[in-house]
Amino acid sequence: AKAEKLDRPVVFDRVLRDKAQRRLYVENELRDVLSRNELTLFYQPIIDLETEELRGVEALIRWFHPVGGMIPPDEFISVAEEMDMIIPIGNFVIDEACRQLADWRNRLGEHAPDNMHVNVSRKQLEHPTLISVVEQALQKHGLPAGCLHLEVTESMIMHDREASIATLNGLKKLGVKLDVDDFGTGYSSLSCLCDFPIDALKLDREFVKKSDRDREVTLIHALIILAEKLGLEVIAEGVENTEQLALLQDLGCCLGQGYYFSRPVSGQDLEESILVGLGT
Ligand code: C2E
Ligand code: CA
Ligand code: CA
Ligand code: CA
Asked: Start and end of every EAL domain (predicted)?
């Protein structure tokens, strides 16, 4: 350790050093994050674009650290993956999302969101326990499998094709739905739409962001038609304004999600906005 200290370059890029230190901090704090109860799920509405009614929610993890403040998922999910902490964290997310949906179904009845969308990381998909973790969470909370959507990315399923197909088929057998997240950003070819047992495409928000350009509009339109012919639902991500909403409605896109409708909010806040919508 002493030799290491002496070896350190005299000029150490400040930004890099801060970044490296921050990463180390995150890594250390992640180890017992679950026992400290610092993780929570926020929920972002997924809206039926035709009726503008709530259809489902996407669970998005939030880490409220007493000293570090809110640490965004983009900063710790990849670290958690490298340390294999993503397995217990991912299990927590699946269980907590199911608990919350079951609770809403019990208390809000038909006004509860129909579907809960949960992000799954590559390590989770490759882990042998994923299917039983999902099965147990559904059972424990008394949820029908069809209301749980697992979101996976193209590059994740292309990483170990055969194993992914087997796991995805096992999940399908349980009855859960599978969504391709960030569709259009991966390296995969469109053939993944035929080879994997998927139910929905989440159009990456880059498409929606550039939808003021003719070429993007053509591309979005073609993807919506393609998805429809394959029997897949399309969820447009990153809907931020009325122009984008109107365009997506024109193109026949079924579902959308984005700041225009709502930012991700706590379970409590989502519930309150549902109740306000009911006029209670
Ligand atoms: P994602 O799955 O693509 O989630 C959508 C991200 O876009 C969320 O960021 C959301 O807050 C943000 N977003 C939603 N609407 C808009 C919009 O209109 N405009 C813009 N600019 N952004 C919008 P968030 O919550 O920071 O999550 C970032 C990423 O972290 C997620 O991207 C997902 O890949 C990952 N993540 C979040 N929660 C989990 C989790 O529980 N497990 C795993 N494995 N990954 C997670
Ligand atoms: Ca997602
Ligand atoms: Ca996404
Ligand atoms: Ca993403």
From this structure: 23-278
Nearest CA to ligand 1 atom 41: 61
Is the predicted ipTM greater than 0.85, yes or no?
yes
pTM comes to 0.93
Strands 115-119 and 53-65: parallel
| Å from CA of 120 to ligand 4 middle | 11
Q: How far, in Å, from the CA of 119 to the mean position of ligand 3?
A: 9
Q: Which residues line ligand 1 (CB under 6 A)?
A: 44, 60-61, 72-74, 77, 93, 119, 121, 181-182, 205, 238-240, 257-259, 264
pLDDT the model gives residue 116: 98
CA distances from 74 to 77, 91, 185 (A): 6, 18, 17
User: Beta partners for 178?
Assistant: 150
Residues with CB under 5 A from ligand 3 (ion): 181-182
Residue 163 corresponds to which tokens in the numbers above? Answer: 């194993």
Residue 43: partners with Cβ closer than 8 Å, 6 or more residues away: 57, 58, 59, 60, 100, 264, 265, 266, 267, 270
The 3-state DSSP class for residue 17 equals helix
